[in-house]
Design goal:
Length: 268
């Protein structure tokens, strides 16, 4: 990923996605919005205790920066599960307005103009784009979603429903908690240690039975095992917990924090 600046708003992007000229996308930072206090300043979460009017203005600014109409966004309540939902032109506006999409951690579509949104603040946003079949997806991969392989499930879903060849799919892992900061106890580490391919990405135990898990490397491994070309995987994110000036972090800030969002939309 790299950071670009649009109207004084830093946005994380995946250069391979930009090069196609076929999608608008980006992951927000906390800079460039109107919220204050713990939500300073570009909070995009409607259920974090921030004023709704502030969040709407922040959404307006972020979607403007991406060149995506605010009313075209679609999002859902996320539950750290692996349920994915296909969305259509008729779903535009759900989330900002009334929505029947719930308990969903991944959205996908082949319809231009439908802007998929996923929220995060340490969890990894995974964005997908198949420039051949012109299909996009956005998934939410926290440690639970990573252990449950939502990345693989997303690739398989695109393959089943649209005939996407995994070798054509571009993927990006966005800003999220890094191996520097994702410390956990034995039960969570055990979820990763039980997969032999992931053992190298778990360090520990240290001290009082603490471990560190490299969720970035696990997600990259999952995507490679799902058939993606390693050259098509952008997995060089920055750590949300280490970069307080740029990102919200659930680990660092606890419940009193804003939310970041990743958005992707087919432009043609
Ligand atoms: Zn860190």
């Amino acid at each position: 990923m790299e950071l670009i600046t649009h109207n004084n708003m830093p946005i994380a992007v995946f250069p391979r996605f930009l090069e196609t000229g076929l999608v608008s996308h980006g992951i927000s930072t906390r800079a460039g919005g109107v919220s204050s206090g713990a939500w300073e300043s570009l909070n995009l979460g409607f259920h974090r205790g921030d004023d709704r009017s502030n969040v709407m203005e922040n959404f307006r600014r972020f979607t403007d920066a991406l060149g995506v109409p605010l009313q075209n966004t679609v999002f859902s309540a996320q539950t750290h599960g692996t349920y994915l939902r296909r969305v259509y032109d008729s779903d535009k506006g759900k989330g900002i307005g009334p929505s029947d999409i719930s308990q969903t951690d991944g959205l996908y579509t082949n319809e231009p103009g439908v802007a998929l949104v996923t929220f995060c603040a340490d969890c990894a946003p995974l964005l997908f784009f198949d420039p051949v079949k012109k299909v996009i997806a956005a998934s939410h991969s926290g440690w639970r979603g990573t252990a449950a392989q939502i990345g693989r499930i997303t690739v398989e879903t695109l393959n089943n429903e649209f005939g996407c060849n995994p070798k054509d799919i571009l993927a990006g892992v966005g800003p999220s908690i890094g191996p520097c900061c994702f410390e956990t106890d034995a039960p969570v580490a055990g979820e990763f240690l039980k997969n032999p391919a992931w053992v190298p990405y778990v360090k520990g135990p240290y001290g009082a039975d603490k471990y560190k898990v490299d969720l970035w490397r696990v997600n990259k491994q999952i995507l490679e095992d799902a058939g993606l070309d390693p050259r098509h995987i952008d997995c060089e994110p920055v750590c949300t917990r280490c970069n307080e000036n740029l990102f919200y972090s659930h680990r660092r800030d606890g419940g009193k924090r804003g939310s970041l969002a990743a958005i992707i939309c087919l432009t043609a």
